[in-house]
Structure formats: structure tokens, C-alpha cells
Amino acid sequence: MQRLLILLGIVLLLSGLAWPWLSKLPFGRLPGDITIERENFSFYFPLTTGLLLSVVLSLLLWWWSRK
Asked: Which domain holds residue 20?
């Protein structure tokens, strides 16, 4: 558990430092993400982005549990 928390902290730190470059990636604006904009209302649901992140995290955790 300690190694997991340390690794998570390092990943968060690195992603925070790399945020200017990471924000330019198309995540959050992928085809399949639902965006509805009206006069006084806007709704955004990142369906494709969520599915992609879920698959990547599942593969990483599966790979890590095999070790």
C-alpha cells in the first residue's frame, strides 16, 4: 500500500509538471464525447474519454497485479 501511494504521488507530481503539454492533447474533446450547449445551459459528458481512461487503467492494474 505504501508503494502504491508513493507511486501515485509521483505520477500526480509528474502530470502536474507536464500539464502545459498534457492540456494540448485531445483528451476531453474526442469523438463520442457528448456536448450540449444552449442559451443558459451547457452539458458535457466525456463518454469516450472515460471509456479510454478506464481501459488504460484496467490494463495497467492488470499488468501490475501479475508481478
From this structure: 2-66
Name every residue whose Cβ is closer than 8 Å to that of residue 51 and which is 6 or more positions away in sequence.
Answer: 32
Q: What are phi and psi of 40, to 5 degrees?
A: -110, 25
- Rounded to whole angstroms, the Cα distance separating 61 from 6 reads 16
All 3 cell numbers of residue 24? 494540448
Burial per residue of 20-52, b for 16 or more beta-carbon CB atoms within 10 angstroms, e otherwise: eeeeeeeeeeeeebeeeeeeeeeeeebebbeee
**How many domains would you assign to the chain?**
1
Does the reported pTM lie above 0.85? no
Give residue-wise pLDDT tens across range 20-48: 887 787 766 788 888 899 999 999 888 88
